[in-house]
Amino acid sequence: MTNVLNNIIKSQKGRSRTATLEDVAQAAGLSPMTVSRALNNPKVVRPATIARVMEAVNSTGYIPNMLAGGLATSRTKLIAVVVPQINNNMFVDTVQAISDQLAVRGYHMLLCIVGYEPEDETDIVSTLLSRRPDGIVLTGIHHTSELKRIILNANIPVVEIWDLTPTPIDMLIGFSHEKVGNAIGEYFATRGFTNFGFICASDRRAMVRKNGAISVLRTIPEHDIKEVIVSRPANMEVGRHALRQLLDSGHHFDAIICSSDTLAQGAIMEAEAQGLRVPDDFSVIGFADLNFAAHNRPAITTVSVDKWDLGIRAADMLADKIEGIAVAEPIVDMGYRLVIRESA
Amino acid sequence: MTNVLNNIIKSQKGRSRTATLEDVAQAAGLSPMTVSRALNNPKVVRPATIARVMEAVNSTGYIPNMLAGGLATSRTKLIAVVVPQINNNMFVDTVQAISDQLAVRGYHMLLCIVGYEPEDETDIVSTLLSRRPDGIVLTGIHHTSELKRIILNANIPVVEIWDLTPTPIDMLIGFSHEKVGNAIGEYFATRGFTNFGFICASDRRAMVRKNGAISVLRTIPEHDIKEVIVSRPANMEVGRHALRQLLDSGHHFDAIICSSDTLAQGAIMEAEAQGLRVPDDFSVIGFADLNFAAHNRPAITTVSVDKWDLGIRAADMLADKIEGIAVAEPIVDMGYRLVIRESA
DNA sequence: TTGTAGGCGTTATCAT
DNA sequence: ATGATAACGCCTACAA
């Protein structure tokens, strides 16, 4: 049984040690190289030999050492994933999708949560690279030139996600935040709205969406625009507070444009707490189509992006490139969908 | 400059290769061992030498290879974290807290999202161990005996989180789901409620909370209890649907007990959609004190656990044990707090 | 304070 | 189909 042989291994050196290929080879009466082949390239090994190896693997409790394997092959089956946050609902679906699909493809995920500062990202990615990941996922397209230099030097596939540019570091899958903003602006502009309140998180992409909307809204004669920029995290409480600020400003609003559904949900809550009705007194629009948006009361009008599919495809793009499979579309625009529900 | 030396490295072998300690040593006119010491144990190296090393590191663009380092030292500065899900709001704070604190302590996080099946967990942890992590975080206390055997054999520190038992694999930080359930039951029992509807996710811990509540509620004379077990994911939509099922059953309810705030929020939404008022027509209680619970309308009565602190402390327990610092409390009961707000 | 030799566990490569 | 040898890049242990 397992324990018997484990004990032998332990007693040889006088203390605990995990089984190695050598141990398995000894148990099977084979060379380490043959065991390695039986495990990694079974089709060149005789079936009977494979059986012997498997038995020895079980009896020794052998677990391969991927540090040694990676060192020898320069392939680690490791993907580093870098995101600014996961507890704001925005990226968590994408991260879980990436994780799931990487697992399907036989990779592990090294997850790093770095916040929104490009300098922090640079330092952290640098240490991440010391794990020699086979590929890396970065959120967004704004990185320090130092970071780009480091990554290029490491010479591994990269996928940037959640934004769009014609000049990614390597591969890219995302959508245009500016166009999302434009679409929101046009929705209101073509419906005769004139007075707008923005509740916008202070991160760069949220700002781009906001400015995209504003650039359209400015074309409306006699428009009025009032902004509240909120510090992260953009949770429901912050949304409620921001709406209060807008209402206290004395402006009148036709529509409140929020940089996320969470803020929108908060704004709606606060409106109703103050005896106002959405969309009767004013409209509210969010972003991201988070899982509660469709089921809120009122259901939240928003811009939807396929966060899950984005993650799946990002993982596949990386795995494909790593494995030498040509990536047909190295730059993917996922697009977005304006989803009109009750709140606007 | 960087590129010059990088090019030298490249041309030596005719193709791209990342700089090694050897390259840095050559550039600095030192031995690899001295470079290694300058980087990892600077206090035993002359300051002038360190300066030379740093210059060479910069000029070569050297990034240490932790595969090689880990192989040599058997320490990887890697922690494997295993959770069932992250996109249900329950674990995401804890995971982010673990990630943050591990970063502070100089560790990277290998994150694995395994679902709720113990067998899947076993296989996945087994492959995870091939990375030779310095420690591992497991969610919950129910694992296959095979898993326990494998982990014990690997001989690394383990922290189980988010549950409580006197007999953890190694260390543990969490809380008693049964007692959480008891507390909920007592809250209603002492207030004269008699008719209960449960909306409960089908995972094991949610069930334990439910049964903990029921065991108390059964002591109420003429109680009536009706359950709906919902399939994952336990999102707002599912909560709405489940409440509809309860109402359609024709039972009358004083209180709806939900296994998460998300389900509770859905139940409240659905109630109001049907013209019912919470808590006037019936009370609703959730679990976890998710970030929206306090700011919902009505604010959601719930049981709060300090998810963030739990993660911080789990990371510290692991790092301490790995680094030979005695862990004063290897079994930590985080407790819970019944937070009475408006919905119940 | 710095350098040398050897080994960590695996796989590529070249035999047999 | 299987085996022997030499890396992979770093660090421990010992030597100078």
From TrEMBL, chains A, B:
Keywords associated with the record: DNA-binding, Transcription, Transcription regulation
Signal is among the record's keywords: no
GO terms assigned for molecular function: DNA-binding transcription factor activity; transcription cis-regulatory region binding
HTH lacI-type domain sequence ranges: 19-73
Keyword Amino-acid biosynthesis: no
Pfam families: LacI (PF00356), Peripla_BP_3 (PF13377)
InterPro entries named in the record: HTH_LacI, LacI/GalR-like_sensor, Lambda_DNA-bd_dom_sf, Peripla_BP_I
Superkingdom as given in the UniProt entry: Bacteria
Entry protein name: LacI family DNA-binding transcriptional regulator
